[in-house]
Design a protein that fits this description.
Blueprint: H1 4-8, E1 12-15, H2 18-26, E2 34-37, H3 40-43, E3 50-52, H4 59-67, H5 69-81, H6 88-108, E4 120-126, H7 140-143, E5 150-156, H8 172-193, E6 203-207, H9 212-223, E7 227-230, H10 243-262, H11 270-295, E8 306-311, H12 317-329, E9 333-336, E10 362-365, H13 368-374, E11 383-386, H14 391-394, H15 399-402, E12 410-413, H16 431-444, E13 453-456, H17 470-476, E14 481-484, E15 499-503, H18 508-513, E16 519-523, H19 532-541, E17 543-546, H20 551-559, H21 563-572, H22 574-584, H23 593-606
Parallel strand pairs: 1-2, 1-4, 2-3, 4-5, 6-7, 6-8, 8-9, 9-10, 10-11, 12-13, 12-15, 13-14, 15-16, 16-17
Length: 607
């Protein structure tokens, strides 16, 4: 129990939850205390005592911070690769830790000298955070640990309902039509062959996770007599990273780390931030060691088996661990593109350390632009080839999916996923700035159209903030707008609408474009903007609006046109759009990408 007198002495308070703050007030916190937060919900009503802890992060400063992360990760990787006894998978782990550390560094840069010595209180929350656990709390407890006048209290959320992406409410027929025969074949063969002895098949593909193109490729391999085998890690004891090895790693990057941190935080926080980065590196490497021990059974299987690992992403810790085991066992690793982002997004460079080609022998790309971009990765390991986009994407353009109703002819597919404490940057705006921009889009454009509009909320799996997004309340206040908040993938909803509106250069765009329906793309110049090349091509192939001066009026005027007129203008862009699709989305529209990929894999590894 927190005694009221224990909170009344604090005037400098960190809190990201309205519910938790109200609890603290009831426990004696003064309502005149200054509350510092990153939460859009807390900042929304402009309470003078609630201030934006990230307010000094303007666009120019954010741009400098975000755009230099990639180079820092490359330098870290290069230095670690020179350390004797460190594998490339371990080096990638360390470079990834250096990238993710910037979430903490960003928060550390918000602290002042006073925060390090004067009384301050952090009101943390405990609640359901989704599959990734509770990540709703900023790292103030780590950053202010040396302040003897710092205190943390924890509030258990009452409003704790949380859900994740589901197909509940989507008919089995709809799922089967999108998944196609390839998915049915894949599921059937997985179920049947996993019950058979390993030795019955000389040719096998090992699968740890899936995406659309991987499933279709595996199905074609299965039809050609290759066993598709689902594998899972086996829990067992492991030896943590050797301390001497860790010391060598630390020495190799210490200068780089020190320079990077000194550029952004108070001098009194530098040593602490260094220590926290090296803690993150150690945790990452120990996680890698643990997963690697769990995959070791693969190395002990009969050597005469011809095996290939098919993997959705080999660049998380779990994936890098199995990649390490496979590499030592002579098992080729084939990875598959799972979304159109890296080749179209101008701010995706910070994530280049996570490119699939960095840890695989062969990368299967959707299009030539993607292959070209992945080949420029500083961390590249393997080769690549272009097979085309998945059949599931192509099915978005079937007549069945073209049928629409007139209840909401326009749908806005929101990509407004806040960073919180776990998201990558890829933006030069704070979460509050993003909320304000989304609000303006709702109130100045979508809410003022003569058409009914559906607002499709982003299906967030891992919870960023405890309180409800204030933008959604603004959506519900618009007479012509309906909020679709169920966490269902957009691919299952495309048939219900005639004009598709979205923003930010993410993989969401590929599903919309492949539907064949009119796509209106809002290019946020400070938030996941298009590359110059993509911008030039997209401006001809779809309806593109840059959020520059006068943007809201231009977009509102366009979307106020009769729906039939928008569809007519869309038809006129057909030639330019076909060029755009071939260059940035898929090399082929023949619905045979899985067959092409399986042929290459079979010829390269199973002949």
């Amino acid at each position: 129990m927190v005694h009221k007198t224990s909170l009344s002495e604090y005037n400098n308070v960190f809190c990201d939850s309205l519910e938790a703050l109200e609890y603290a007030y009831q426990q004696g916190l003064s309502r005149d205390a200054i509350i510092r937060t990153s939460s859009p919900a807390m900042l929304w009503n402009k309470d003078p005592n609630i201030i934006h802890v990230e307010s000094h992060w303007n666009v120019d400063l954010m741009k400098e911070f975000q755009s230099t992360i990639q180079r820092f990760s490359e330098e870290i990787y290069d230095n670690v690769m020179l350390v004797e006894g460190i594998s490339r998978e371990e080096s990638l782990c360390i470079a990834q830790a250096a990238v993710s550390f910037h979430r903490l560094l960003f928060k550390a840069a918000c602290l002042t000298r006073r925060d390090l010595v004067e009384p301050c209180l952090f009101i943390s929350v405990d609640g359901n955070g989704g599959p990734g656990g509770n990540n709703m709390n900023p790292p103030w407890d780590k950053l202010l640990i040396n302040n003897p006048k710092y205190k943390t209290i924890t509030y258990v959320l009452k409003n704790d309902k949380w859900s994740t992406l589901t197909t509940a409410g989507v008919s089995l027929w709809n799922r089967m039509r999108i998944g196609g025969m390839e998915t049915l074949t894949y599921r059937l063969f997985i179920k049947l062959t996993n019950k058979l002895p390993i030795s019955l098949f000389r040719r096998q593909v090992l699968i740890t996770n899936e995406n659309e193109l991987l499933i279709e490729t595996a199905a074609h391999l299965a039809l050609n007599g290759v066993r598709i085998r689902e594998i899972n890690p086996i829990k067992k004891d492991y030896a943590p990273i050797d301390k001497n090895k860790l010391l060598c790693i630390k020495k190799s990057i210490k200068t780089l780390v020190n320079i990077r941190i000194k550029n952004w935080v108070d001098p009194n926080l530098v040593k602490l931030c260094e220590s926290l980065l090296f803690q993150e590196v150690e945790e990452k490497l120990n996680s890698f060691m643990r997963f690697r021990s769990q995959w070791e059974f693969i190395a002990k299987e009969p050597k005469q088996l011809k095996r290939v690992l098919l993997i959705n992403s080999p660049v998380n810790t779990k994936g890098l661990a199995i990649a390490s085991v496979c590499r030592k066992s002579g098992i080729p690793i084939v990875s598959f593109q799972h979304g159109v982002t890296y080749e179209i997004c101008a701010t995706h460079g910070e994530m280049s350390v996570n490119c699939e080609i960095n840890a695989s022998d062969l990368f299967v790309a959707y299009n030539c632009q993607s292959e070209k971009k992945y080949q420029t990765s500083h961390f590249i390991y393997g080769d690549s080839f272009v097979a085309g986009i998945s059949a599931r994407h192509l099915r978005m353009n079937r007549p069945y999916y073209m049928k629409s109703n007139n209840e909401s002819p326009i749908i806005y597919v929101s990509t407004n996923l806040y960073r919180g404490n776990i998201g990558a940057f890829s933006t030069w705006e704070t979460d509050y700035d993003r909320a304000v921009n989304e609000h303006l889009l709702v109130t100045k454009v979508l809410g003022r159209l003569p058409h009914k509009v559906c607002y499709k909320n982003y299906p967030e799996d891992n919870r960023r903030y405890a309180d409800k997004d204030p933008v959604l309340m603004e959506v519900c206040a618009q007479e012509n707008m309906d909020l679709f908040s169920r966490k269902i993938d957009m691919r299952y909803l495309l048939s219900k609408h005639r004009v598709l509106v979205t923003t930010v250069a993410t993989s969401t765009l590929s599903w919309l474009v492949m539907s064949g329906k009119p796509v209106v793309f809002i290019n946020q110049i400070h938030n996941g903007p298009l590359t110059k090349n993509a911008h030039s091509i997209f401006s001809k192939g779809l309806f593109l609006f840059d959020n520059t001066e006068g943007f809201h009026e231009r977009l509102r005027n366009f979307l106020s046109l009769p729906i039939a007129e928008i569809e007519k203008l869309w038809t006129q862009k057909k030639g330019a759009r076909e060029k755009m699709v071939k260059q940035f989305f898929t090399s082929s529209l023949c619905n045979n990408s899985g067959k092409i990929a399986s042929g290459v894999i079979n010829d390269k590894y199973f002949k």
